[in-house]
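Quick one, tokens below. Sequence please?
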């Protein structure tokens, strides 16, 4: 019994310590948004009185609203299209019988081994030749279909009851209506998990927007935050405020969909 209590004590101590270490950067970011640049540099860990000054400086120096809207617009469009395309592909890979689909899936999985940086030059030349630079389509198109999401939907679709599809066909539904009215409601946790992952990746995407979004009017939040550190002197209070604003959407999405995210990752089907 004593050993068990000691084990519990060390277990909870370890969990609390790791939790505090994980939360601390977020806490420091929020506190830094209320402090001046000098206070942030000196490591002040309590809230200050410079929040309004940082907001005023942000309003005068950067176009935060425009960058936020650009990120939100492109991220939502990419998330919706990506989930739709990849879920249909994963559904097809799992439900329909074909001898060559496993080979095709192997090729898709091999594409995950190609570093993203190696595709930047070919993508830039392709998009430049068709005049898609500085456009929402140019931002969204490379991320609509990913091997990871297709594989994710395929693996989760393995638990999907095939008898339900057969019953829907008997009732007269076509394949697309089966996907919309049967597959999507049953696989809702998987869709939620995929949407969260896709939203976070698209929202935090930096390299591709840096290449394709070449004008200030199309600047996204990661580009704006990076620009705050490119001058001779960095205003860390302003930087912390911008990073806090940039982090809020992903935090809201994750915590509102946390239960569905866990269910989707573990492969549960209702």
């Amino acid at each position: 019994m004593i050993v068990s209590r000691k084990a519990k004590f060390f277990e909870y101590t370890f969990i609390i310590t790791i939790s505090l270490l994980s939360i601390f950067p977020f806490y420091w970011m929020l506190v830094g948004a209320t402090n001046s640049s000098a206070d942030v540099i000196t490591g002040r860990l309590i809230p200050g009185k410079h929040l309004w000054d940082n907001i005023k400086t942000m309003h005068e120096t950067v176009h935060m609203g425009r960058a936020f809207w650009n990120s939100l617009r492109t991220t939502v469009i990419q998330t919706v299209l990506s989930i739709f395309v990849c879920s249909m592909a994963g559904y097809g890979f799992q439900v329909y019988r074909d001898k060559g689909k496993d080979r095709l899936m192997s090729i898709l999985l091999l594409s995950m081994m190609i570093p993203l940086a190696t595709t930047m030059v070919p993508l830039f030349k392709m998009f430049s030749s068709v005049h898609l630079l500085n456009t929402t389509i140019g931002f969204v198109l490379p991320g609509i279909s990913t091997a990871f999401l297709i594989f994710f939907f395929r693996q989760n679709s393995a638990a999907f009851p095939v008898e339900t599809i057969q019953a829907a066909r008997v009732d007269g539904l076509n394949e697309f209506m089966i996907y919309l009215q049967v597959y999507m409601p049953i696989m809702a946790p998987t869709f939620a998990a995929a949407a969260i992952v896709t939203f976070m990746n698209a929202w935090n995407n930096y390299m591709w927007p840096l290449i394709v979004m070449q004008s200030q009017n199309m600047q996204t939040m990661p580009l704006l935050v990076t620009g705050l550190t490119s001058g001779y002197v960095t205003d860390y209070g302003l930087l912390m405020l911008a990073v806090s604003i940039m982090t809020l959407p992903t935090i809201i999405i994750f915590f509102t969909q946390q239960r569905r995210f866990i269910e989707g990752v573990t492969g549960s089907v209702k």
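The chain has a mean pLDDT of 84. Residues 64-95 form the longest helix (32 residues).
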